[in-house]
Amino acid sequence: xxxxxxxxxxxxxxxxxxxxxxxxxxxxxxxxxxxxxxxxxxxxxxxxxxxxxxxxxxxxxxxxxxxxxxxxxxxxxxxxxxxxxxxxxxxxxxxxxxxxxxxxxxxxxxxxxxxxxxxxxxxxxxxxxxxxxxxxxxxxxxxxxxxxxxxxxxxxxxxxxxxxxxxxxxxxxxxxxxxxxxxxxxxxxxxxxxxxxxxxxxxxxxxxxxxxxxxxxxxxxxxxxxxxxxxxxxxxxxxxxxxxxxxxxxxxxxxxxxxxxxxxxxxxxxxxxxxxxxxxxxxxxxxxx
Length: 289
Ligand code: FAD
Known about the structure:
With 289 residues, the chain is an alpha/beta fold. The protein has one domain (2-277): TIM Barrel. Helix content is 47%, strand content 14%. The protein has a nine-stranded parallel beta sheet with strand order 7-6-5-4-3-2-1-9-8. Helix 3 links the parallel strand 2 (41-44) and strand 3. Helix 4 crosses helix 5 (119-130), helix 5 (119-130) packs parallel to helix 6 and helix 10 (235-256) crosses helix 11. The longest helix is centred in the C-terminal third of the chain and has 22 residues, at 235-256. The radius of gyration is 18 Å and the shape is globular. The protein starts with a helix and ends in an 11-residue tail after the last helix. Bound molecules: flavin-adenine dinucleotide.
């Protein structure tokens, strides 16, 4: 973990672009609550294939204008170089300085894979088109990407994104900190030393967590699964257990030298803020819920 200790810690919150006016209003409230702890940036997801293109742009620009630096996610699957260049220019004109560059996953049956096949090609294209305008974040998978041929290849493919010009990475969520420590160890042995920030998934709903984890290849350890199952519909116990468990994991990660945390908020603030407060990260701005 030594490579990670040299980096300044940074904290960020991820949102998805809301679909409805009600969703927009809710996100505004969530944004205001999370802004109180003064994060380094917000980020906004992008539907692969461009399904959320306009909503992502609107949400990013709106959040950015309100004073907290905001990073759009940008996926290349199904896109042309021209359409990506257009987005990059728009973000540059609006003062955006950070981009989360991804391949994305096209929904099944949705068109061709596009002009850029992998995220390393997207990173190269961003550097080619926009030079050093953007700080580029890429995705990392401590438990390995579900489509990777093997662990070794996945690490090499991660290194390609760094060689192409990525500045830092955010991980897929995980519940076993050892997978993160091992991943960093393997990167260090390969001489890859960019900040790799753990992505943190709050636990709020068991069935959706299982569904999503199966899809993205994140393992829910048996003891956590069993405990959550035992709570059944008792959402208050699930929330409390999740917050305690995630707080403990975050503390372990930070103590070991992780260079910050990135919260997948699911457009909710309570759990992220409770974990934040449990960790004592922003006592000056502590907010009560
Ligand atoms: P890549 O780095 O391209 O890797 C994809 C797979 O291909 C891996 O198995 C890798 O080993 C392999 N590979 C990579 N390069 C090569 C190569 N040159 N040759 C052969 N094989 C290669 N998805 C969205 O649609 N929208 C989002 O906003 C979004 N945000 C995310 C944010 C974070 C922090 C993370 C961790 C994931 C996010 N995702 C998002 C999900 C992501 O798009 C998927 O996990 C997708 O399957 C892989 O994207 P990637 O950028 O990691 O792809």
